[in-house]
């Protein structure tokens, strides 16, 4: 195993940047909130984290961030476990797998968080805040109107114990706010975006526990990363401004910070947000549409990350070639044509048995079992989705053949005489391709396209398609005769 030297991104004021550690393994994680199905954006985040840990023979952890009780659903948890497994992104620590820091769903970690809240409260680094949502909204409005960035005004920052009791007695349920240290500069090196600097004065005291006692994202996310010994975090750049808050929290708690890298978001081909029409698709939708997991892996691993090689890579190769230095800072543009390209490549690289399972529903039992292998070998270059396989199954094994207008034109142009010759040649030579076309060439004096095209059109009803030699081998003698006869 390689030895990995990680310079932890930290807060220079607290000398975190001095933490140069040599560690044997790295631990990355994916921490989704189960408020919807996985889609290309968050799957890519999971993938980069998984590739990074696999590259170093490290560990990939999965944590369910279900602190938003209203929006989190257990069916989304089940779906995301299934979707990640379908994609081959197995986690070594997390739900259903277990690990030393179980449980891995934040909704089950309240007792753990309670200890850290207590620590912050007893050291006066957090205080109860009784401001109501209405009061907070008003304060924001006033600050914005005065041209100032909105941040907590500090109303409850210095309440005496008596004042707190009085508010409690009025039935007010406080939130818990973190007291952001004044006049500090939070610096860290983002693994993707380079050196970052934030003034703590710009942050404002923030809520770490909601009035209903559930933990706020900043808190649970940072505490869990530390307790679960996560060393590297790649996440969306929408979290970049959360990072200084989290570093301050970890510093206050005396917990280690992971190294953060913030990924540029995926945008549509026009640079705008992804839409349902373009790229904003759930993994389930893509799977139902027939995308193969390896196609998505090859596509997503290159979306905002460059490899030395442009050719097809299996999951182990994707991990071997992954490097955070190769992550781009510019927004990654969704490109439907690229996704289709990798889908075709995936079909080309998939084992025939798996391909059969993938296509079998779409071919409606049209392909006899004995022809299964040959059918796959024949249509593979012309298949991108199961429906394409269904199309060719129908073309090759269906009783009725409806030729496309282009094929009809080709058949008409060749004329009935051509097909009479073709029937005769077939009667003489059988379906062996070379002898058959040689014979037909002798009889008609035609060669090249003029010879192959009418044959293809008559036998498949199409002017493009799988190799003719393979088509001939797959069609039954009866079909061949019927189809040639029909053109005479
Ligand atoms: N639960 C957060 C999200 O889904 C995780 C953010 C992070 O990766 O730190 O956005």
Automatic annotation (TrEMBL):
Motif window: 'KMSKS' region: 273-277
Phylogenetic placement of the source organism: Bacteria, Pseudomonadati, Pseudomonadota, Gammaproteobacteria, Candidatus Competibacteraceae
Keywords, in A-Z order: Aminoacyl-tRNA synthetase, ATP-binding, Cytoplasm, Ligase, Nucleotide-binding, Protein biosynthesis
Functional summary from the UniProt entry: Catalyzes the attachment of glutamate to tRNA(Glu) in a two-step reaction: glutamate is first activated by ATP to form Glu-AMP and then transferred to the acceptor end of tRNA(Glu).
Main location: cytoplasm
Sites where the protein binds ATP: 276
Biological source species: Candidatus Contendobacter odensis Run_B_J11
InterPro entries named in the record: aa-tRNA-synth_I_cd-bd, aa-tRNA-synth_I_codon-bd_sub2, aa-tRNA-synth_I_CS, aa_tRNA-synth_I_cd-bd_sf, Glu-tRNA-ligase_bac/mito, Glu/Gln-tRNA-synth, Glu/Gln-tRNA-synth_Ib_cat-dom, GluQ/Sye
Chain ranges of the Glutamyl/glutaminyl-tRNA synthetase class Ib catalytic domain: 26-320
Transmembrane segments: none
Entry EC number(s): 6.1.1.17
Pfam family, one: tRNA-synt_1c
Similarity remark: Belongs to the class-I aminoacyl-tRNA synthetase family. Glutamate--tRNA ligase type 1 subfamily.
Protein's UniProt name: Glutamate--tRNA ligase
Gene: gltX
Catalytic activity: tRNA(Glu) + L-glutamate + ATP = L-glutamyl-tRNA(Glu) + AMP + diphosphate
SUPFAM superfamilies, per the entry: An anticodon-binding domain of class I aminoacyl-tRNA synthetases (SSF48163), Nucleotidylyl transferase (SSF52374)
Domain of life: Bacteria
Gene Ontology BP term (one): glutamyl-tRNA aminoacylation
Quaternary structure (record): Monomer.
HAMAP family to which the protein is assigned, alphabetical: Glu_tRNA_synth_type1 (MF_00022)
